Amino acid sequence: MKITLRIFITAILIASGIGASAQMDNLANLSAEWIRTGARNAAMDATDIVVYNPAATCRLSDGFHAQISNQTLFRKPTHSYDLGIGQGQHTYSQYGSDPFLPNFYAAYKKNRMAVFTGLYVAGGGATMNYPTGSITTDLIANQVLMSAGGAYGEMSDQHLKATSYYMTSTLGASYAANDFLSFSAAIRYINAKNTVNAGMTMTSSPFDLPDETLELKTEDHASGISAVFGININPSEDLNLSLRYESNTSLEFKTKQITDDFGLTTDGELHHRDLPALLSFGAGIKLNTHLRSFVDFNYYFQTLADWGTSGAATQNKKWSSMAGDAYTFGLGFRYEINPKFSASLGGGYTDYAYNDKDGYYTSLGTYEVIQDDNVNLNTGIAFRATQHITVNAGYMHTFWAKDNTVKALNAQPLDVDVKINNSLHALALGVDFAF
């Protein structure tokens, strides 16, 4: 029976793009300070500028600087649909939270120079978990039951789980050419791991056939090196400007096959999912003695990245071409209440400039994660516990437009509209040291 079913299962999984991971590429939330402000590209006040404004690390005070922080994410992506074959409305939601998204940064500054390093998650950083299934497993289950020719009447124990973590390390240096202009250069190394765990059980056979379980478990590993260049311009105490470019990180994933009852994957097969190049701009403006504002703009060159080619449902188009480029805009304010306390408020907008949104959503994990335009609101406080230690606490809420609709091309010939919804709450706590 498994050999007969493989053809049908493989077809639907290839159409849904099993090679694509459940990641959200190019994370912007890389520190507790960002969670509490929403804009850090032009910051000069803490060690997280290692990733946001590395050219300003040589503007820190002389000595050693370090920061460690963690974020906890509570995500609720949901998708609803009716296949129109008498099964009624289906609604599936993400289960669980992501308790750990850590980062560590360090810098040493002396006179006009600084060296810096960091360990953080540049992409992914979350788990997609649908323990009772999703639209992807439903489509597979219907194909399996049809191909079984009545040998089985139901499909039970559907589940789909995927993880993605792009563990990143960076090493670089910055130099102040004069009192207002500084530069930086760095290399970063990314070690990425994606996992997929999916399955279902054929049951309720009218011929008393034993239940049959089908599973797919794989791990995909890749590594790559890229460069980061920065410029910081600080013409006065009231204005700071920054520019940062991160080159494309070429990531060729190699599949490790653990279990594949579908006959879908090949142990050792290769496929690309690069981390796209990024151009970031930032401006920091001192409004008065206690209040500063920050403006961020990030542009992601996704169409130039190699993400491989889609399946037959989208005429074998390039995933990155269908995705199009993306950009984010952020605005934040920091108010110094007194020498020990400051409060922050900010927000941002993320635009996924899709060239073919319906086509891109045939990628496995996209309905389950929800990659779409969104708005984030940020707030938090910083407490200067001592001359050398500052504690940061932040909260962010991200929300998406309600009941957006995507045409499920991977359900063809069925005409299926999928309503997608999402929300996210993030908590962050960090400590910054300066000695």
Termini Cα gap: 67 Å
The top level CATH class name? Mainly Beta
- Please name the CATH architecture: Beta Barrel
Main pleated sheet:
14 strands, antiparallel, barrel
Approximate helicity band: 10-25%
Structure explained in plain terms:
This protein is mostly beta strands and 435 residues long. The chain has one domain: Porin (Beta Barrel). 11% of the residues lie in helices and 54% in strands. It is built from 7 helices and 20 strands. The strands form 2 sheets. Strands 1-4-5-6-7-8-9-12-13-14-15-16-17-20 form a 14-stranded antiparallel β-barrel.
Q: Can you lay out the helices and strands and say which pair or pack?
A:
Elements: H1 2-15, H2 32-37, H3 49-52, E1 63-75, E2 78-82, E3 89-93, E4 98-110, E5 113-130, H4 135-147, E6 154-176, E7 181-203, E8 212-236, E9 239-246, E10 252-260, E11 270-272, E12 277-286, E13 291-301, H5 319-323, E14 326-336, E15 341-352, H6 357-360, H7 366-369, E16 374-384, E17 389-400, E18 404-407, E19 417-421, E20 423-434
Antiparallel strand pairs: 1-4, 1-20, 2-3, 2-19, 4-5, 5-6, 6-7, 7-8, 8-9, 8-10, 9-12, 10-11, 12-13, 13-14, 14-15, 15-16, 16-17, 17-20, 18-19
Helix pairs in contact: 1-4
